[in-house]
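Demo today. Your pick:
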Amino acid sequence: MKNSISLFSSYRFTHIILMLVVLALIPLTSQAEKREFDLSIEDTRIVLVGKRDFHTFAFNGQVPAPLIHVMEGDDVTVNVTNMTTLPHTIHWHGMLQRGTWQSDGVPHATQHAIEPGDTFTYKFKAEPAGTMWYHCHVNVNEHVTMRGMWGPLIVEPKNPLPIEKTVTKDYILMLSDWVSSWANKPGEGGIPGDVFDYYTINAKSFPETQPIRVKKGDVIRLRLIGAGDHVHAIHTHGHISQIAFKDGFPLDKPIKGDTVLIGPGERYDVILNMDNPGLWMIHDHVDTHTTNGDKPDGGIMTTIEYEEVGIDHPFYVWKDKKFVPDFYYEESLKKDLGMHNSKVFKGEPIEE
């Protein structure tokens, strides 16, 4: 009898301990992660291609800006310090800002612009999931169009779709356009009648973009972000593009095609199966967007390079090119969630 009471007490004690462990774990799984980041806005000189430089207002001194990579539902705090001589804000494009409308980043509507030397703190919940971006909302015609004030905001879904689980490599392509006549006249430009003459992927024009390196069997995701003022028609040779997401939201059925039309502010996530080894062009089919100034063979162009065919071909323009990883944030996207600066996009400080 004594032994049975002892066994019963032991069982009850074990049961209570297990219940306490379960109860302790419930808040951990339901609570959102709190993430805090610091951004500065700096006068920075970048080079689009060759000797074509631009005076930008760069987040943390880089264009595009640092990748902010968080989980759906995270509570995000961003402290922004303006080190330039002009006012700025940050709009978190795609975030719903439920209950945090004063962090939407629009001057004269949700806040005073951040004046030179001041710091402003944004707080919001990362929702919905998807490919989003952030950009200045002061004088967007200049600051966004030709001063490089934009960067990617990727919100991972709590429950990724089956098509997302097939992806082996992830790339971000921010498409933009520039007016060289205003290159070194900060505070001016972005007006009707401007002649756009440079076009970029992640602030570089071909041939100073980078290839997308794959092997047969890879499934790649191209996150296309319209960060500029023009519409672009992105055509991938030799493959079927599956448009799976629009502005972060999944389509009921992916749309198949070979050319994706993307306008200002839009985002499209395109899934491609790497099933056709070769060297394949990706380019803007708005043909004037493949120029650098008055020269052809520039602008929004890159290639897909298959490991199986190599690059040592006498006709291949990039056969001797020095490869620079993370040009499409592909390495940063593999890191733990957080904010990731990249030396790939770092410019030169401008001392005023």
The first strand starts at residue 34 and ends at 49. The two ends are 89 Å apart (CA to CA). Residues 312 and 319 are 5 Å apart (CA to CA).
